[in-house]
Design a protein that fits this description.
The complex is a heterodimer of chains A (218) and B (253).
Chain A (H helix, E strand, L loop, with lengths): L2 H37 L4 H16 L2 H16 L7 H27 L3 H10 L3 H31 L11 H10 L7 H27 L5
Helix pairs in contact in A: 1-2, 1-4, 1-7, 1-8, 2-4, 3-4, 4-6, 5-6, 6-8, 7-8
Chain B lengths: L3 E10 L2 E11 L4 E5 L6 H8 L7 E6 L2 E7 L2 E4 L2 H8 L2 E4 L11 H11 L5 H14 L15 H13 L5 E5 L7 H16 L4 E4 L3 H7 L2 E6 L2 E6 L1 H6 L4 H12 L1
Parallel strand pairs in B: 3-9, 3-10, 7-8, 8-9
Antiparallel strand pairs in B: 1-2, 1-4, 4-5, 5-6, 10-11
Helix pairs in contact in B: 3-4, 3-5, 5-6
The chains are: A mainly alpha (218), B alpha/beta (253).
Bound molecules: adenosine-5'-triphosphate and magnesium ion.
């Protein structure tokens, strides 16, 4: 196998990695906010459900959660999942896992905002939803940026867990290449590692930019 | 018609009775100062008046319209719409300003005008600039709160409250978070407002200021009004031993 073939194969795998990464963020960043609202709901049963969900997501391995999402519909309910279920299961698994973490991060951010902000808004006559959207949410976003950046970097690396249910992202590709008959051996892993690293480097730069954008106030 | 009427206000936190039967009225154009030792319930009283804390019992009226009325030993609050309406009657200036840090000074002054009162952006900005000018802060419209000194922040907070055209303005120790050299600029603004007949209730530890600016002084201790009257009387010739004690300690400090 030529090095060029290898790199091409890894880059193809990387597109899947990138798709998992993007779709997970697009799904879990907003879902995390909904989970937070559920945790704070006045309706106690919803709170319990959300708390159990969060503690399971944080207390069990992501790799196991992916398996459950992938095999669950068939093993538990005898359903025949759609043909692209492999990929969808990965996305669903990642989204619900990361949403739980984001919900906790948002909670920390929101609870760190001084109560005086709510009181000032209340006295000025803002409604509860105006207060949240205009006063609390923007300040929360700034406060959680460092923690969110950590999660996003972890996510880049976590995408490789998709291999357990046979989604051919970059890590799976690297494994396949490494055991191919005329394989370049270790090199496949080294190149994959470099690509992960560069990707994370870019992610970090972007997140730094976002943090800088938000540093116009303290 | 009084701007504010509080009748037999009681407030307990758990078993601790913090306000025990407080009544007071504030007329249009009146400046009322509330003084008293730490823990006497001054802040709690302001928080009850501004609907940040619910009274346990008692009645609260703005412009003779009930925000809450005493029923069977409990304060029964009016509906959401009525409270929203009455909220627009008053403004509150906090000890630690509570400006919105992510908004520029201008936006701190305009946002509630636009999203609560429904004013146009132009109207709101015109009002904001006029108030900033009055506060001596016309050059700070585009600054963010963290770029301002404490005294400037507090003046912005006063302007933010005034932008809503309240009929009565409450202050909870507006200068006690400030360095001594910055209190003057804030007190000066409040004095000016008093000259313009702004109705105000001011909780303060600045005795000289209270004596000077207030038409009526209330001395609180242990959750009750121990003594009240014109400043000449409360400061010059206090009738109650507790008032004398308190004032004495202050003049020594
Ligand atoms: N949320 C609360 N929960 C329990 N107790 C409270 C609460 N808020 C105030 N208190 C108690 O009520 C009493 C009166 O407090 P308040 O803040 O009204 O006093 P104050 O006169 O404003 O004092 P200071 O001059 O120190 O500001 C204090 O004993 C205080 O500990
Ligand atoms: Mg106080």
């Amino acid at each position: 196998m030529t090095i060029q073939t290898m790199v091409t194969l890894l880059c193809e795998g990387f597109l899947t990695t990138l798709a998992i990464f993007m779709l997970t963020l697009v799904g879990s960043l907003p879902l995390g906010l909904l989970v937070y609202f559920g945790k704070k709901s006045r309706f106690a049963p919803l709170r319990w459900v959300v708390n159990v969900y969060i503690s399971i997501m944080r207390g069990t391995p992501l790799i196991l959660q992916l398996m459950v999402v992938y095999f669950g519909p068939n093993l538990l309910f005898g359903l025949t999942p759609p043909s692209n279920w492999r990929f969808l299961a990965v996305i669903v698994g990642f989204i619900i896992n990361y949403a739980a973490y984001f919900a906790e991060i948002y909670r920390g951010g929101i609870e760190s905002i001084p109560v005086g902000q709510y009181e000032a808004a209340e006295v000025l006559g803002y409604t509860k939803s105006q207060t949240f959207v205009k006063i609390i949410l923007p300040q929360m976003v700034k406060r959680v940026m460092p923690s969110v950046t950590n999660e996003v970097i972890t996510l880049v690396k976590d995408t490789s867990l998709a291999y357990v249910i046979g989604v051919v992202e970059m890590f799976t590709r690297a494994k396949q290449i490494a055991v191919a008959p005329d394989s370049p051996g270790m090199l496949a892993f080294v190149v994959a590692g470099v690509i992960y690293y560069v990707f994370n480097f870019i992610v970090t730069v972007i997140m730094d930019q976002v943090e800088k954008k938000l540093s116009y106030y303290q | 018609m009084s701007v504010l009427t509080m009748k037999n206000v009681k407030k307990s936190f758990g078993d601790v009775e913090v306000l025990r039967d407080i009544s007071l009225t504030v007329e249009h154009g009146q400046v009322l100062a509330i003084i008293g030792p730490s823990g006497s319930g001054k802040s709690t009283l302001l928080r009850c008046a501004t609907l940040l804390t619910e009274m346990t019992d008692g009645s609260l009226y703005y412009l003779d319209q009930p925000a809450a009325e005493s029923r069977d030993g409990k304060a029964l609050y009016a509906g959401k719409e009525q409270l929203k309406k009455l909220r627009s009657v008053f403004g509150l200036v906090f000890q630690n300003f509570n400006l919105f840090p992510h908004y520029s000074v201008l936006k701190n002054l305009t946002d509630a005008q636009i999203s609560v009162l429904g004013r146009s952006k132009d109207q709101a900005e015109e009002k904001a600039h006029a108030l900033l000018k009055k506060m001596g802060l016309d050059d700070k419209a585009d600054a963010y709160p963290f770029q301002l000194s404490g005294g400037q922040q507090q003046r912005v907070a006063i302007a933010r409250a005034l932008a809503m055209d309240p009929q009565i303005l409450f202050f909870d120790e507006p200068t006690s978070a400030l360095d001594p050299e910055l209190t003057g600029e804030v007190l000066k603004i409040i004095r000016e407002l008093a000259h313009e007949d702004m109705t105000m209730v001011i909780v303060t530890h600045e005795m000289a200021f209270a004596r000077d600016v207030a038409e009526h002084v209330v001395f609180m201790d242990g959750g009750v009004i121990v003594e009240q009257g014109p400043p000449e009387q409360v400061f010059g010739n206090p009738q109650q031993a507790r008032t004398r004690q308190f004032l004495q300690r202050y003049s020594q400090a």
